[in-house]
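Explain this protein:
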Amino acid sequence: MTTRSTADLLATIAEDVSEMASVAHSLDALTSELDLTHADQNKIRDLQRVDALFQHLDDVSVLLRKMSAMIGSGPDLDTGALSNAIRLDYLKSRLTENTTVAMAPAVSGDVNLF
């Protein structure tokens, strides 16, 4: 059984959430450059959720970092059991190997936003 401290795991998850917040920030910036003149107004309103998404992710990342600092090392957690609860291989590697693993680059191709 491989274990890591709760504080270490929280800090790792905080890093990943922060990375996802950066992606959401980029999406938000991109939407302001789109010509939405003829787009369905309901879909345009849905785009505003991207703004809420990155704000929530930013806050969750800060909260996780704060919890990591407050908990001390905390109890050791079984990383195998935790990784069995998630689907993403990238995140499994981050939790079990305690190393920085680069996220897979985005595959280029046709973009279909709506």
